[in-house]
Request: fold
Amino acid sequence: MVANAAGPAVTAPASPDGRRSALVALAIAVASAILYHVTVIERVTLDSFVPLAASFLEGRLHIAEPMPWLELVPRPEGGWYSPFPPMPAIVLLPFVALFGPGFDQGIATALFGGLNVGLVWVLLGRIGVARAPAAWLTAAFGIGSVHWWVAGTGTVWLHAQVVAVFFMLLALLLASSRRWPLVGGLMLGCAAASRLPMGLTLPLFAALYLGVAGWPGLRRPSMRDVRAVALFLVGVGVPALLVAGYNLARYGTPFEFGYGLIPGVLEEPWYAQGLLSLDYIPRHLHLIVMRGFDYVDQAPWFRPNWNGTSLLLTTPILLWLVKARAATPLVAVAWLSVALGLLPDLLHGAPGFAQFGYRFILDVMPILLVMLGWVFRDRMSIEARIAIGLGIVANAYGVWAVTVAGFVSY
Reply:
């Protein structure tokens, strides 16, 4: 069942050819992964997840070698702890085991990025979006959003976001068909074990497993529905407990990741009110809504700024989310999940730099794509397609300016 943005829920039509759809998704994934990898001419090697994965394989929770250019926490006994959740390192274990500690993390990031685009295509079909609007929305995500630059650049912070999107998409695929709630919970838990804010999007997944649909059809949950949600919560809890144990083993408390323990981090000007504060929301909103390219008196004139770029410029199709009105409980819960998932980002002192676009939007992008799928289930207007095209042009230019021409500033 999927929610109609303008009314009661409707049943998603069956896929005309599951095998063909899978082949299309695979082709999209491969093409996207190649695109992401080759469009970054000179990759900046800023990663601590490969060294951390190598440490895991050696039975250690800390990185032995000094990496002063990255955000790491000194270990009293020597070495360094990563202040980030560990799942992005865990998914690298097979790569590091096969290719050694010199493995280029950017390759894995591009691979997961490609898989994300293929999964978006499958997810949109799963919730009943017609092939034409599904193709446009898949392109909007793959090359018309910050995901292009993030998946191609693949530094430590960006790798984590791409991996988190991968697990959330898997969770949405399962929840949208109300299948395997335990596994669906595990997938959302893995997403949160990559990017903590994603754990706050849980209400939408619980609503999907409960079978929440339209107001006229709102019903009392059955015991089967309640059991599905319980299994889902158990699934979420497994990675949460493992991450809590990971923190406990490092710091003696399950709730400490160590970001505030990075030497000098709280002395940085953007954390004047601490790591999280309501005072930081206006700077995020300025970036999201108003921040454009810098103008300079030399070709090509419009220079991206590492502080970021407005979503209205990089992904204008998001404006059509105004049509995803809370006319059904499921749409209302989706909006709640988006708000909860973005809240920690909006409260964070650093709005994501260095970046092109606004990378924190990826924490809720899978849900936003589902909502856009509800808006454009049967067809897409010419204005919306033009908006997607403009987003593709903006992101292509941004990727070229930043990664090829080096035409970027603070």
Q: What stands out?
A: The chain has one domain: 25-261+273-404. Residues 25-261+273-404 form one domain. The longest helix spans residues 223-251. Confidence is low (pLDDT under 50) at residues 1-15.
